[in-house]
Recover the amino acids of this structure.
């Protein structure tokens, strides 16, 4: 019996192996003649339902397959016409009237103002639909379609970022028929949308296949298909790119990006990024009702100490040593230079340069005396300046950063010890319970910086019960609050940008956070496949993960070779190897089984 | 000449005349199986209890952890906690959890907004395929190599095959997987990349029989990695249990009868040595499942391991709990099966 099993296993194994080698022989090319771009992503789609999806990969696919009221302009990143072709505002800034464009859904039905009305009302009224973009309608009083082409949004308060609404507009006729919004997976193919592409196939944790939308109001994209292919680990994705399984991958870390240096077929796309990395300083954390919380070191409540820490950090060295030079040292605050309209850079007196001597001087003058061991104490002599630095576990970059900071702070008489925390504990201690001195942090900023600025508002501090709304600093500053309210109501973009710059200046000089650097946007693509692509913004911008659909809309690629050419061309080598492997395996299995037979026959004699 | 049934010599050897217990055999068997089944049910119950408390020991508030980097008002957070059932007292949460689990309701994923059981159902197929094929190959390879090694005990073949298997056993799964992927999927120097770099199927997969070949093509590297890191345990078990048999009198007898060496091994020694091995094959299913988690991560294989790994990164506690319980239950079921099967296969156990 056992021997029979063994033989069965051997046979099935042989069959399997033969089958394995076979596809290499029969090179099928269903893509022949089509222009296809295959994009690798290292994040799985969480949901195809635009009311639920929160991950970047999902919201990107939605950006490419649905229309929005507005889209960031490809040059200036300012809101420009998308499904809304024009708009007007009432004098009090509360009533917005949008004229909806004459466009078509991918199933041929016209796009109307009623579709937009249905979409916004769903987010406003259905709890389950708030998941993805709930905050975007918080300030909406009502949304009504007064006719097929006119949408009226009434706001509770003036809101400058009204035009940056991130909600994709869905077809009412499809979604009303689909029933419960929260339970709708939105996987009836093809998915009806009005963007440049239409999702025609989706396999969970594997890929999404998008086809150019021929009825798109701007005109059909240059390529025929866009495949979004999921890799669980970035190293495998890089291997896929090198081999040509994928053509393009974005959002890379420095090591993976650098591993492809010198490859003639690959373009290393290295541009200013949308993220700011900064230190969060516990300057006296308080809850939303102004009660102290946590165990932050008292010295950090002194702005002079925070200033001295800032002087002790060599940001240039951090960029070179920690980020392999693939970042920009931060002489500003939480808005990266990529957003040139809103970016503020410290100059003249404001500028805090790397200067340990100055740092020591500030601390000496403020009465923090150095002890015999070289460590400073509080002016009252009670407590030494021994600080904790909270970072995440298993983040080599943060480890390295901690080593540099520890060295520099030692030079100014401050001891820094590193605490590694897993991500939930980290979030809790640095965002809610205030059990930290200095922590690593960072934020990816949208074209409109309102969201990142709001993370430093008083109202974002946690409640006494340790609950709350996501502060990034426990900051609560009258000047900052006043400026925030001003920018909300300022509908003139230039004026508003000035106010936003003042807010960054306040953050820079008061230092509840100290910006370290702005990591670059690192992407790779194959130039033998992708012939042209326009980033956003057009000058040195982002390809994947930015807002809007410009890069995927403008991308052009080489058409896949015809079936015959493929078989005669480069793919013959794997074919031959496959054949050889198949023959060897089948042969070996055959010999093995035959020998068994023979020996059995011998025994039976 | 006639040769007795494969298992008979050992049974006689170890247990002596079997007549005394033959009367109560079937009843005893049922009782034994029931006892083991009871043990399994108890173990699963303990897993359910342990799961609940273990996942609540993880520091941090799940609602906060999940919404990290997403600014939410306190009201929205409260709503989220309510949805997760975190607002109730711990005891009530526990009772809810147990009752729901007994109804096979493993909760709803926070991240996917879908029942955990559905998510698991979708992923179970690919994992069974990978782990199943991997297990069959690893067991066959391990037993075959183990037999060879033991029979040529101390020889060059023994040292070589045992050494290789132990090296592979010690290698981190993730590292080996990545290495194989770099070499055989991406291609290095003169070695062309003939295997896919990811997943169970590509875009535009063919239909019908060609689809089976297509999946098989994707299966090669993940399967190879899995086999490489787990087959050593089967080799070692087979080797040591065969070594035990080699010194037995019945083997000497068989040799004395003038049987060829090959036959002594295949017809007498190996069948007896297989008995403890069979149990271990089942008992070590847990290791294979564990290996599958890492392998799936390297090759983006859309199975349970990937689901678990992603849930940890979320962190999506409902999915973590669900997958954890399902994997534990699978191992317990396998172990119980092994116990019962061993009982059926090996008369020596029945007598004790």
């Amino acid at each position: 019996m056992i021997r029979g099993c063994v033989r069965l296993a051997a046979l099935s194994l042989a069959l399997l192996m033969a089958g394995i080698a076979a596809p290499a022989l029969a090179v099928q090319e269903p893509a022949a003649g089509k222009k296809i771009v295959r994009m690798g992503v290292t994040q799985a789609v969480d949901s195809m339902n635009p009311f639920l999806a929160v991950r970047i990969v999902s919201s990107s696919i939605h950006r490419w397959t649905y229309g929005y009221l507005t889209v960031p302009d490809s040059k200036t990143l300012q809101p420009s016409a998308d499904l809304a072709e024009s708009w007007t505002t009432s004098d009090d800034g509360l009533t917005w009237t949008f004229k909806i464009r004459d466009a078509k859904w991918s199933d041929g039905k016209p796009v109307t103002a009623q579709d937009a009305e249905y979409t916004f009302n769903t987010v406003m009224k259905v709890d389950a639909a708030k998941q993805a973009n709930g905050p975007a309608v918080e300030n909406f009083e009502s949304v009504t379609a007064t006719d097929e082409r006119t949408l009226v949004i009434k706001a509770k308060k003036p809101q400058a970022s009204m035009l940056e609404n991130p909600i994709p507009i869905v077809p009412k006729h499809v979604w009303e028929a689909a029933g419960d919004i929260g339970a709708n997976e939105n996987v009836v193919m093809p998915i009806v949308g009005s963007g440049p592409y239409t999702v025609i196939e989706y396999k969970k944790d594997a890929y999404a296949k998008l086809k150019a939308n021929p009825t798109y109001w701007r005109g059909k994209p240059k390529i025929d298909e866009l495949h979004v292919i999921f890799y669980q680990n970035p190293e495998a994705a890089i291997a896929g790119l090198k081999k040509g399984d994928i053509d393009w991958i974005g959002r890379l870390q420095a090591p993976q990006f650098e591993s492809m240096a010198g490859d003639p077929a690959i373009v290393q796309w290295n541009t200013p990024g949308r993220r700011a990395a900064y230190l969060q300083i516990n300057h006296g954390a308080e809850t939303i009702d102004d009660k102290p919380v946590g165990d932050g070191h008292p010295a950090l409540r002194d702005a002079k100490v925070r200033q001295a820490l800032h002087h002790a950090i060599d940001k240039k060295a951090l960029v070179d040593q920690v980020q392999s030079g693939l970042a920009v040292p931060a002489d500003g605050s939480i808005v990266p230079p990529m957003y040139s309209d809103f970016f503020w850079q410290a100059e003249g007196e404001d500028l805090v340069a790397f200067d340990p001597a100055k740092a020591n001087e500030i601390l000496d003058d403020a009465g923090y005396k150095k002890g015999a061991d070289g460590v400073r104490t509080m002016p009252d002599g009670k407590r030494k300046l021994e600080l904790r630095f909270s970072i995440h576990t298993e983040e080599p970059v943060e480890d390295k950063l901690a080593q540099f900071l520890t060295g520099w702070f030692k030079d100014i008489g401050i001891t820094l010890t590193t605490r590694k925390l897993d991500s939930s504990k980290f979030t809790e201690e640095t965002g809610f319970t205030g059990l930290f001195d200095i922590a690593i942090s960072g934020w990816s900023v949208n074209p409109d910086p309102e969201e990142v600025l709001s993370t430093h508002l008083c109202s974002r501090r946690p409640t006494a019960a340790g609950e709350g709304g996501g502060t990034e600093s426990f900051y609560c500053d009258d000047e900052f609050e006043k400026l925030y309210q001003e920018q909300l109501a300022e509908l003139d973009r230039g004026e508003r940008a000035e106010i936003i710059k003042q807010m960054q200046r306040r953050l820079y000089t008061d230092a509840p956070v100290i910006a370290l650097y702005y990591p670059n946007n690192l992407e790779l693509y194959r130039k033998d496949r992708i012939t042209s692509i326009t980033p956003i913004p057009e000058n040195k911008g982002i390809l994947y993960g930015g807002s809007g659909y410009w890069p995927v809309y403008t991308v052009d690629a080489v058409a896949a070779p015809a079936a015959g050419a493929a078989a005669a061309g480069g793919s013959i080598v794997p074919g031959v190897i496959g054949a050889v492997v198949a023959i060897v395996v089948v042969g070996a299995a055959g010999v093995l089984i035959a020998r068994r037979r023979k020996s059995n026959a011998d025994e039976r004699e | 000449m006639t040769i007795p049934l494969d298992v008979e010599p050992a049974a006689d050897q170890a247990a002596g005349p079997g007549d005394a217990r033959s009367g109560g055999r079937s009843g005893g068997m049922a009782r034994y199986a029931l006892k083991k089944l009871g043990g399994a049910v108890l173990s699963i119950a303990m897993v359910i209890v342990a799961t609940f408390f273990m996942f609540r020991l993880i520091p941090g508030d799940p609602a906060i952890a999940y919404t990290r980097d997403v600014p939410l008002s306190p009201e929205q957070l409260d709503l989220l906690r309510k949805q997760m059932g975190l607002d109730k007292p711990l005891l009530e949460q526990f009772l809810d959890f147990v009752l729901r689990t007994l109804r096979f309701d493993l909760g709803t994923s926070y991240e996917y907004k879908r029942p955990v059981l559905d998510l698991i159902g979708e992923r179970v197929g690919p994992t069974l395929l990978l782990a199943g094929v991997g297990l069959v190959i690893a067991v066959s390879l391990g037993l075959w190599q183990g037999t060879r090694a033991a029979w040529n005990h101390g020889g060059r073949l023994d040292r070589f095959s045992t050494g290789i298997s132990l090296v592979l056993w010690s290698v981190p799964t993730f590292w080996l997987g990545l290495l194989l992927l770099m070499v055989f999927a991406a291609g290095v120097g003169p070695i062309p990349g003939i295997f896919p770099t990811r997943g169970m199927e590509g875009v535009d997969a063919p239909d019908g029989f060609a689809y089976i070949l297509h999946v098989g093509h994707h299966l090669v590297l993940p399967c190879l990695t899995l086999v490489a890191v787990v087959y050593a345990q089967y080799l070692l078990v087979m080797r040591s249990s065969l070594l035990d048999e080699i010194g037995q009198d019945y083997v000497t007898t068989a040799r004395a009868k003038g049987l060829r060496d090959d036959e002594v091994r295949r017809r007498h020694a190996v069948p007896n040595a297989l008995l403890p091995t069979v149990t271990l094959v089942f008992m070590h299913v847990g290791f294979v499942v564990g290996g599958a988690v890492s392998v799936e991560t390297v090759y983006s294989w859309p199975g349970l391991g990937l689901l678990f790994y992603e849930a940890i990164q979320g962190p999506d506690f409902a999915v973590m709990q669900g997958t954890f319980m399902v994997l534990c239950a699978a191992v317990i079921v396998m172990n119980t099966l092994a116990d019962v099967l061993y009982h059926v296969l090996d008369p020596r156990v029945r007598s004790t």
Notes: Chain B touches chain A through 75 residues (CB under 8 Å).
